[in-house]
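call fold target=Alpha/beta hydrolase fold-3 domain-containing protein
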Amino acid sequence: MASRILLPLLLFLVCSHGGSAAPAGRRGMRVPPLAGDPNSQVKFDFSPFLIEYKSGRVKRLMGTDVVAASADVLTGVSSRDIAIDPANDVRARLYLPSFRATAKVPVLLYFHGGAFVVESAFTPIYHAYLNTLAAKAGVLAVSVNYRLAPEHPLPAAYDDSWAALKWVLANAAPGTDQWLSQYGDLSRLFLAGDSAGGNIAHNLALRVGEEGLDGGAKIKGVALLDPYFQGRSPVGADAMDPAYLQSAARTWSFICAGKYPIDHPYANPLALPASSWQRLGCSRVLVTVSGQDRLSPWQRAYYATLRSSGWPGQAELYETPGEGHVYFLTKLSTPQAQAEMATLVAFINRN
């Protein structure tokens, strides 16, 4: 359960560490590398997430625990795992609430956080969160397990999210996936994700707006929960630390193997032209912000830019003061997290 303790650090670019090339070691103690041994010589230290060695070996420091799909006794939600793209090991965990009866329910694609480098759809923290969300919102949730960097640098996660969306659309037809075809209502299709997963959900909605979906399917809403958005130029007084901005750029380069600068629209939507904002492929957007999140200036700027872009949809901003990045994952039972969950549930179930 180490991820339950460490997950509040999931700032994606880690505000306190920023992926700087610090000496490797555990509990603050340096482990001296063996001379000439590439398996012990650090290439990039992305603590507290992972360390990459010169040999190419990657040691993940968190987010590796997994739990099996199950019938959850606390929420009554059933889950099972499916393969989306076996060739690329893209998988998902489906969640179905117990009170489904014969009615069709909204379908929610969810993308986990973890800096694009750790966590999965199967870790305890996300299994608990999706069980709770599926029960409270009454949704059929598809929690996507995309490929991680640095072994699979961006845009792999974006490509996998697109494959997952296409899988959902293809498997809602009669005679395909038993849950989606029987219970999924694709007229109420939503995307959501936290931190890096929020970044994925946004970029997936952009692609939907540019390319459209098979059969004229539409995304009704996108929920961006403390999303990772960042750029080289500071936004607001809270993002003026040059050392932090430089560190953020280094870690972003690590995640995408240097393919895209940090001011690329993948990381910094503020760099998008107005025409892209106007074509965002959904009718509603929810952006959540935690008051102590170092990324909050970019999150608020995203909301403001969307509102003023000419996009014809409805945008909503929800702020939780005094809490850190993705606090709701580790404090699921607190009043603040419950209030945020209620906002997300209302967003999904609004007519």
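return ok
The mean pLDDT is 89. The longest helix spans residues 196-211.
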